[in-house]
Amino acid sequence: MLNRALRPALTLLPLSLLIFGCGTQRNAPQVIIPPGVHGLVHGGQQPVTGATIQLYAVGSAAEGSPASPLLSPAPSTDATGSFNITGTYTCPSPSTLVYIVATGGNPGLPAGSNNAALSLMAALGPCGNLSASTYIFMNELTTIATVYPLAPYMTSPSAIGAPSGEVEALTAAFVQAAQLVNTTSGTAPGTGVPAGTTVPIEQINTIGNILSVCINSAGGTAGDNSPCGNLFSLTTPQGLTPATDTSTALLHIANDPALNTAALYNLIPPQAPFQPSQPQTPPDLSVRLTVTSGFTASPTELDFAPTRINSTQVSQVITFTNNTAAPVGIDVATLNSDSLPLSGANPGDFKPASFPPGSNPNLQQCSTPILPGASCGIAYTFAPTGLGPRSAYLALKNSSANPVTWILMTGTGLEANAGPAYLNPTSLAFTAAGTPLTSTLTNSGTLPLTIDSVTISNDPTSGQPAFTQTNNCGNSLAPQATCTITVTALATAQPYSTGTLTVSDDAAPQGSGPQVLSLTYSNGFTGSVLINFGNRSIGTQGLSYFSFNPGYPQGFTLTLTGPDAADFSFLPSSSSQTSSCTTERLNPFCNGSIYFTPSALGLRTVTLNVNGTPYAGIIGTGIPTGIHFSASPSTIDFGTVVLGQTSSSSVVTVSNTGSAPLTLKAPVLSGLTPSAFTIVSNNCSTLAINATCTFTLTASPAQPAYRFANLTLADSTGAAQGTVSLKVLGTYPPPVANPAALNFAYTPLGTISAPQSFTVTSYNNDPINVTVIDGPVQPFILTQGNSCSHTPCQISVAYAPTAANTAPDDGNNSYDEILVTDLFSGQAFTVNLSGIWQQPASPQLRR
Questions:
Q1: Cα(707)–Cα(728) distance, rounded to whole angstroms?
Q2: Shortest CA distance to 139 belongs to which of 95, 74, 205?
Q3: Best exposed site among 83, 129, 227, 797 by fewest CB in 10 Å?
């Protein structure tokens, strides 16, 4: 069956008319072309001697109909691979499309040899364009340029044709052949390539290298393990007869480009004749012209470091950017699948993954559509399942000018033969700074364990390290040997800190490498930090409120203890009160306040005790005197907001944590999309020491995507600055239906009511689809279709109750809903339906 998907686009026709005239004129007078056409036949980079040359005029009976041979007798190539057409030949008309074929011959074999499987071609165009000065270079590349565009019209090298209704399309195919490869030089690209169009040179050369294995051999048949036999076997689609010549084998590839791609790629000889070629197994063996598009991917290749088998590399991100004027839809379903859409040699070695640490926080996971000017990302990781070079391709289908974006992924699989290895213990709990604890690393395997690093990641909430380590493990640990890792909690650690020690090594998967050691430091705390005052100038006083249930219904006493207890109190320093947390015998809840006045620089800590038992920690940091302030919260996520609507307001509180009065400049909104956010009110101007003020903000996204901005605050002297990160997700509004409910009057069983209609209006007049949610079980039916290509549009519904779709338990009523879905945004709305299928009882007259 001919592959119509390979037809060249008819948008090429203006160019075809420019080059080739007006197509094949069936009734035009015959034309006699004088002798002189000459050329050269090469297999790879060497001449083919004794090859038979035949010039064909395309058939006109049907697609793939027999072509007409024009040369009799047919000439042959000489010892240099050259040929000359010495006699005259007759074409049906000057515009008749012609092509040339070389078959058989000796591609550098011992004298007297002949490769009967050799078949090379070149598409020449209108017969009238040939002259005595025409020169033709036939090789594997001109064959590719001929077979791929002409595949829909070809059944064999001697059968290329099209009926009269497809002359323009066939002409366009000849134009594309000329663009792919130059028939004068036998190299890619060809001539007449439109501006902004790219010819896949590496792909064409790669396919040429595959063909050259058979071309430059003694021939063969499928199944004989010869170079040609392997080519013919691998290019045979299921149910078809294997090819017996290289042009037909190539036709099979063009019609099924994903067939045995890796095995065909592996046929390429070490000294491949055509360069540059694909350095990795391509996703398939198709030949695609690409055009310049504003929809781009960066990078176009992910190269992962060598990785142990069954280990996993840190993921890498591909960023897609839409610089076109229209939204670009992408095939999101394939991105969310572990099995699709990778192809190539080792698709199972590369997996979708989360963004790696340190990625751009404003870059969102790709969803559809990608709006003009927007970017999104996807991440993949490398987990080799075999040794040596590994590769695969991601094929992202999209609605841009290039419907498929290809991303190459590469890596190398290494042996995973060390270990297993383990740590004992797997956690260390510190109660005092400066006191070391140890864990032992054991290599229980039979091979040396290579240790890449021993690192500690500290509590991210701390501004400074909480733990340090030393070890005697070195770079390698012998089989059955152990080494010691010593960890110490630092004096600068917060009263409650966490961390993770990681041993990175080449332990086998059963050793669960890398090995992880959990670290905690609790200086009298039985829980986490209750209050963190943040930064405050020495000598200034900050206030924080707390509310908790210590679980003592009979009353309790609160005390503050620890090395910096003097910096914290329940009451302000100027107060004469003696209590700040009121308790009642039957009310165990405590609502109180804590004051913090740092007396020194750095972290200051205290433990809150309930009835003498440590309950939680309270911390703050002393900073130098001067102008300082804090803004809380530091991030605001407005959540999801429908386009055209405004979010609820969020408040930012600014506190003067310095030792001098503070004058703030007007706040500034900046970042990626500041227009999506609005400062509703601002009561911040001059702040006394310890005073607070607020900003109120809202979000009003104008695009259905994440919007980001920064609210920047600064004092008038430029001594202090703070930033609040803002985020909101804009979503399309759902369709609107008017009316939103349809009620059908009494309709007898077995009859259909008159239809009722509702009008749907979608955002941007998007196309919509409608579905009766429980249909066809329920008795409501759509009477005029279930979709609209644009809105506003009317949807008609009728009520058709029957004994099969009604039940007395429903109270003689039927209920259902119609789901109205915006096909572009996916937003949906429901219309309520109800109907009465049994006549209500008539009221009886009183006597």
A1: 5
A2: 205
A3: 129
Distance CA 821, CA 766 (A): 10
At 71, is the secondary structure helix, strand, or coil?
Answer: coil
Residue carrying the six token digits 């060390």: 418
Of the chain, the end-to-end C-alpha distance in Å amounts to 85
Indicate if the alpha-carbon torsion angle 271, 277, 279, 284 is positive or negative. Answer: negative
For tokens 């094949």, name the residue.
Answer: 24
- Residue pLDDT, tens place only, 352-399: 888 988 888 888 888 778 888 889 999 999 989 888 888 888 888 888
Distance CA 306, CA 740 (A): 60
* pLDDT reported for residue 114: 95
Convert the pLDDT of each residue in 404-427 to its tens digit: 888 888 888 877 656 788 899 999
Most confident of the following: 123-132, 342-351, 500-509: 123-132
Report pLDDT digits (tens) over 634-648: 889 998 898 889 999
> Could you give the CA distance from residue 26 to residue 204 in angstroms, rounded to a whole number?
34
Question: Are the CB atoms for 40 and 137 separated by under 8 Å?
Answer: yes
In this prediction, residues 58-76 reach a mean pLDDT of 93
Q: Residue 267 has what DSSP assignment?
A: T
Could you tell me which residues come within 8 angstroms of residue 112 by beta carbon, excluding any fewer than 6 positions away?
106
pLDDT computed for residue 10 by the predictor:
32
Reported as a single tens digit per residue, the pLDDT across 208-244 is 999 999 999 999 999 999 999 999 999 998 878 999 9
Cα(290)–Cα(275) distance, integer angstroms: 20
Q: Where are the extended beta strands (E) located within 265-387?
A: 290-291, 295-298, 301-303, 307-308, 316-322, 342-343, 350-353, 375-382
CB 294 within 8 A of CB 332: no
Cβ-in-10-Å burial (0-12, 13-18, 19+) of 243 comes to buried
Note the pLDDT tens digit of each residue in 541-580. Answer: 888 877 766 666 566 677 888 878 899 988 765 444 434 4
**In sequence order, what DSSP letters do the residues of 675-734 get, joined into one string?**
GGEEEEEE--SEE-TT-EEEEEEEE--SSSSEEEEEEEEEBTTSS-EEEEEEEEEEEPPP
The set of residues, in sequence order, having a beta carbon less than 8 Å from that of 684 and lying 6+ positions away, is 654, 664, 667, 693, 694, 695, 713
